[in-house]
Write a structure and sequence with these properties.
Blueprint: H1 3-11, H2 16-26, H3 31-60, H4 63-90, H5 102-112, H6 116-125, H7 131-143, H8 147-161, H9 163-174, H10 176-222
């Protein structure tokens, strides 16, 4: 698997929204049923999008054009990631009395009234393609020798991305009590460090993508 895509996948494993959603499902009596729906819907969507993107890019973009536009894409994603990290890092912490955002209210309402269909919907919403996923698809499309290899890399990426939910599902079937206890500790830790994790991960990704994209553009320009 492409090293860049692998690192991006690992950076996506610990996500506060995922941990919160999975923990809420483990707190319900039919945890394995809810997690199964969550995984099925989320994986189906992200795999279809990811495989579709890398196969299309691999089949319809020439190497010269591909190098240029992928570098432009890296610069755009890097700038967006840096901007997001700066925004989160400089934003004042919300006061306890401040009303939650519309997205938070929407997610909380469905977590408070969980059904299999709502768990599936949460799986879709919490794994919509974002900056990190798009950057990984860009890296995979640029490194894969054949479309099949690119598709396999997308599957590996998603397996890592969903690893927390997959592990929770397996443990919920075999050791239900242990699954909830372990995730509760992880959720508490991420709750304390979540802001720092987001700033660090997006900051590093942003700086890396900006540096990579600008370096490729510089080399490309020197050859023109």
């Amino acid at each position: 698997m492409n090293a860049e895509a692998l690192l991006l996948a690992l950076s996506s494993v610990i996500r506060p929204t995922t941990l919160g959603a999975v923990y809420a499902m483990l707190s319900r009596p039919a945890a394995h049923r809810l997690l199964r729906a969550y995984l099925a819907a989320g994986l189906a969507c992200s795999l279809v999008v990811g495989i579709g993107v890398v196969v299309v890019l691999h089949g319809y973009v020439t190497p010269a054009v591909s190098t240029f536009w992928r570098a432009i894409f890296d610069v755009a994603l890097g700038a967006a990631a840096c901007g997001y990290a700066i925004g989160v890092g400089t934003h004042r912490r919300s006061a306890p009395s401040r009303a939650p955002s519309r997205t938070t209210r929407w997610l909380q309402h469905r977590l408070d009234n969980l059904t299999a269909s709502r768990a599936a919907l949460i799986g879709l919403v919490t794994h919509l393609p974002g900056l990190v996923y798009l950057a990984a698809l860009n890296a995979i499309a640029g490194s894969a020798a054949k479309p099949l290899n690119a598709a396999v890399q997308v599957v590996v990426y998603n397996t890592i991305w969903y690893s927390v939910a997959i592990a929770a599902f397996v443990v919920s079937v075999l050791y239900p009590a242990a699954a909830k206890d372990l995730l509760e500790k992880a959720d508490a830790l991420v709750g304390r460090l979540g802001r720092s994790i987001v700033v660090t991960v997006f900051g590093l990704i942003g700086v890396y993508l900006l540096g990579k994209g600008l370096s490729i553009l510089r080399d490309w320009w020197s050859l023109q």
